[in-house]
């Protein structure tokens, strides 16, 4: 059973790490000030400001920053500055037994997807597909903060994952009622682990996927790769988030892909979850057990892993 990390509350300390691509120092500093204004303390990783091409630092250095946050008793939660690329490079250098023994909430999306799933599969802890440091700013919708804090600040993980009131509701596309741990996240990052030691086992799971800024034929290619790798056959049900700013290709859009590729699978399917790269970001706990009821159009987190 996956472990739910301890709650986070006002006055607690957040560890900030850069685990993939670098982020401008001015942006990091502004977001840290916003966190502090919310009543949270901040500790920065040694390489949080580093810049080495499309990576912040070496794989070993970024991994060491993350492990230092898990080892630090004063740190209650860990926030990556952003995703980008390269997060998979740190996975071989993490101490998963130590992470399991000292669970802390870690939140992110985009390329942080690979870390979230590794924390569940190898560290057996629940993490959160939700906000990163870059999202802590005045223009972030209140819904995003409400979703984030409703999970990390509650001892009871059970809740219904819902879209914001001014957003279309969840759409049950293939009927079914199934339960399993949630895995997944960003499609491109998730596909990138196939054939590696950190490939995610989807057996018995609820598989959640979202994508951003890709032509639909590329999205199709990646979905087909997952299908041929058995990831859809192994899972119990599928949740599709937004394909934010994804471009029509060959006259086909995201809706066509859903109708022509996913619906014929016959797997219980809910679409339209506002999570990931879109404006609204539902908080999806990776590794927690959820019920997907596509007949009712509901996703309910029912227990820890």
Folded structure, characterized:
One of its GO terms (biological process) is proteolysis. This is Muramoyltetrapeptide carboxypeptidase. This protein is an alpha/beta fold. The protein contains 9 helices and 14 strands. The chain folds into 2 domains: 140 residues, Murein tetrapeptidase LD-carboxypeptidase, N-terminal domain (Rossmann fold, 3-Layer(aba) Sandwich); 145 residues, LD-carboxypeptidase A C-terminal domain-like (Glucose Oxidase, domain 1, 3-Layer(bba) Sandwich). The strands form 2 sheets. An 8-stranded mixed beta sheet has the order 6-14-13-8-9-10-11-7.
Order of helices and strands: EHEHEHEHEHEEEHEHHEHEEEE
Residue windows where pLDDT falls under 50 for at least 5 positions: none
Total strands = 14
Helix/strand-derived category reads alpha/beta
Tally of helical segments = 9
Core attributes:
305 residues, alpha/beta, Rossmann fold, Glucose Oxidase, domain 1, 8-stranded mixed β-sheet, serine-type peptidase activity, Carboxypeptidase_A_C_sf, S66_fam
Question: What's the helix and strand layout?
Answer:
Layout: E1 13-17, H1 25-37, E2 41-44, H2 59-71, E3 77-80, H3 96-101, E4 105-108, H4 113-121, E5 127-129, H5 142-152, E6 159-161, E7 171-174, E8 177-186, H6 187-191, E9 206-212, H7 216-228, H8 231-234, E10 237-244, H9 254-262, E11 269-273, E12 284-286, E13 289-293, E14 298-303
Parallel strand pairs: 1-2, 1-3, 3-4, 4-5, 8-9, 9-10, 10-11
Antiparallel strand pairs: 5-12, 6-14, 7-11, 8-13, 13-14
Q: Summary?
A:
The protein has 305 residues and is an alpha/beta fold.
